[in-house]
Amino acid sequence: MPVGFEKVGGMMEFFPVFLSVVFVVRNQSDCIEKMLSEAAAGISSLVCDYELIVIDNASDDDSVFVFKNLTGENGQPNLQVFALTKEVDADTAAWVGLENALGDFVAIIDPLADDIGFLPEMLDRAVNGADVVFANNMQKSAQSLAYRSAYAVFNGLYKRFNGIHLANEAPQYRVLSKRVINFILQHPQPGMTYRHLPATGGFARVNLSYSAMPKVSRAKQLGESVDRGMRLLVSTTRAPMRLVTSLSLFGAVANLVYSIYVVAVGLLKTDVAPGWISLSLQQSGMFFLISLVLLVLGEYILHMVSLSNEGPLYHVGQEFTSARMTRREKLNIEEADPKTHHEPDADPERAA
User: Fold this and answer.
1) How many angstroms separate the CA atoms of 190 and 184, rounded?
2) Which range (209-213, 302-306, 330-334, 348-352) has the least confidence?
3) From 282's CA, which of 93, 134, 234, 242 has a CA 20 to 30 Å away?
4) Cα–Cα distance between 32 and 78 in angstroms, integer?
5) What's the rounded Cα separation, in Å, for the pair 232 and 292?
């Protein structure tokens, strides 16, 4: 069975749905043709109709040339390729495929880290009522101690602010129903909110786990991951900015209390150092005003963030679509009813 698709009860289970499968790739021209052929062979026997959507994340090898051949007359059917002009993070790249998907369900797969052979079990849960199905691979690529420490801190903060452990409860390998995708599209920045909304939007979800060795061990860059984590943290919750405004309010109150203390000392004490009262009141008043400014500015930023829309985070430079689309071949075709179908009469006089 291609690409490790497992049989259930001695035979492959068939699902009468239209499935879109999104792959995010970069610099994989040497193996992408084999990967897509094996995936198509397995998926075509799994569902009644499918499409493969490949997001080329600004590859600098000859991937674009390979994709042009794959989408030609004799190439891979049911294939769409979106080649980005610049490299973006995995979540943004995956969203490019999601918003262009037509299927009843959409699977997002990292071909180097996720096991596509686990897809039938995920699809089974989706067809049976789950709007979101997550699959977490228990085997991870080896990363540096600094990366693992920062990763643990980020997930701890995210769980405290949003109530979910993003890595364990909302991994990137997922199957989403069209209803979930339409819900995400209503948000001003779907490319960013796509990462967490399926887990926090109140949809029926299932979390599965499996164990498979990643095909390639990739060391992730700590700097880029920290930047993406901070953007995700501040864009999906108000807690960090609310902490800033709370500290500003605390600073304003503390300086006000200190000013009252300085005045009380000046009234009740006679042996106060010359200039201490005026200097203390000047400093406390200045920091009181600064704290008020930060408080108002923080609240204003919170309000503007909720209303702003910075536009798309990506730009599609080239798009390729298969010349052959099997679902189009099924359109406008009627099968004759054998009970009413009659062979044409060969004798023209009898026909007359």
Assistant:
1) 6
2) 348-352
3) 242
4) 15
5) 28
- Residue 240 CB: number of other CB atoms within 10 A? 12
- Residue position matching structure tokens 């990643």: 214
User: Quick one: what percent of the chain has pLDDT higher than 70?
Assistant: 80
DSSP per position, 314-347: --EEEEEE-S--HHHHTTT--PPPTTT--PPPS-
Is residue 1 over pLDDT 50?
Answer: no
Q: Cα angle vertex 223, ends 217, 224, to 5°?
A: 70
Picking from 238, 113, 104, the residue whose alpha carbon sits closest to that of residue 167 is 113
Q: Which of 299, 170, 203, 206 is nearest to 244 (CA)?
A: 299
105-109 and 15-25 beta bridge pairing: parallel
Q: Higher-confidence residue: 200 or 56?
A: 56
Q: Specify which residues 320 forms β-bridges with.
A: 81
106 contacts: CB under 8 Å, gap ≥ 6: 19, 20, 21, 22, 97, 98, 175, 176, 178, 181
Residue 345, exposed/middle/buried by CB under 10 A (0-12, 13-18, 19+)? Answer: exposed
pLDDT digits (tens, 9 = 90+) for 99-140: 999 999 999 999 888 999 999 999 999 999 999 999 999 888
Token output for 266: 């000046």
Distance from C-alpha of 295 to C-alpha of 247, rounded to nearest angstrom: 8
